[in-house]
């Protein structure tokens, strides 16, 4: 029913699939420092380079990353025994949001009602025992999230590759998507996510400007998989980020996580409605790519938002996930959730659709803890097939390049 295959190339342009909010750059980021990936077929030469320039992340055969000056970069380019490449920087793709509010307009927003197929729902439940690793701009100790924050780590700082017990979100995006996964209503007046009994691993891979590096993202993905194995817990990775082309570091990290039993969920992108616009890592066969739905009925179903990236129309109807395929769709337009100043904010994007599916995965896994990641993925696909999407450009009966298999729901 499905096929998974490792794919690889080099990341050239990277954008985060979600809203951005400007802030001044850190002083350290203004300095003359470049993030590079250094490789060599000569192990001795590579080891000497590590000693000379230091190591941020060691990716073994793929090389190691480090920060060097512009002058050092130009000098290393002349060394025929080393290959030195710039590591791509991630930046946010802006989408308009609403004015923040002190209390949510709805404790169970339309996305929750749609996921639970219940317009009258007042609370949500589920996800106990499952960990959801959100790789984003971090999280704050929001009233609706503080009970569920279990791990908090920062991979984005320039002076240290990993800082534990710190993941402060000074952008807003990470707090927003985390709330959609597992907000628990706080003191009783807050908002609810899909799986409020799950635990959050907040891995900050982007700074307050919403920018970061692909090596930090790849390292965080691998760290999730290692932590899941160390603690022997079922874990979902939720990534509301993407790129127009592929990074071998991130590709290999996603496959490493999936091969080690972690389900990887990623945004499809905001470059629709044209075909073949799905971004990476969502475009990878080892990641579940999520398209965005809006609260509009068309042909008797929800409609795929125009901004939502589309996959490959040549693979319509095959129910096989390969490169550049949208897998499923979920609520993504006008999604209300927790915000980084303790308030609530409404945003649109496939970034917002992704945590709905990540939360669903946690709920299913909590009920069926013996499932493998592949079996969990198959269950999500089956639920999608039972809830076909027929609205929006490119949507059609069955597996289509706009909505994928369909919309997976709780019930």
Can you walk through the features of this model?
- With 411 residues, the chain is an alpha/beta fold.
- The chain is built from 8 helices and 19 strands.
- It has helices at residues 43-53, 70-77, 110-116, 173-182, 214-231, 248-259, 350-367, 373-385, and strands at 14-17, 34-39, 57-58, 64-68, 83-86, 89-93, 131-136, 149-154, 163-164, 199-204, 212-213, 235-239, 242-243, 263-267, 288-298, 301-304, 328-331, 335-338, 344-347.
- Strands 7, 8, 9, 10, 12, 14, 15, 16 and 17 form a 9-stranded mixed sheet that branches. Strands 11-6-1-13 form a 4-stranded mixed sheet. Strands 3-4-2-5 form a 4-stranded antiparallel sheet, with helices on both faces.
- Strand 18 (335-338) and strand 19 (344-347) form a beta hairpin.
- The longest helix is centred in the middle third of the chain and has 18 residues, at 214-231.
- The radius of gyration is 20 Å and the shape is globular.
- Residues 1-30 have low confidence and may be disordered.
Strand content: 15-25%
Give average pLDDT, whole number.
91
- For the termini, the CA-CA separation is 22 Å
H/E series: EEHEEHEEHEEEHEEHEEHEEEEEEHH
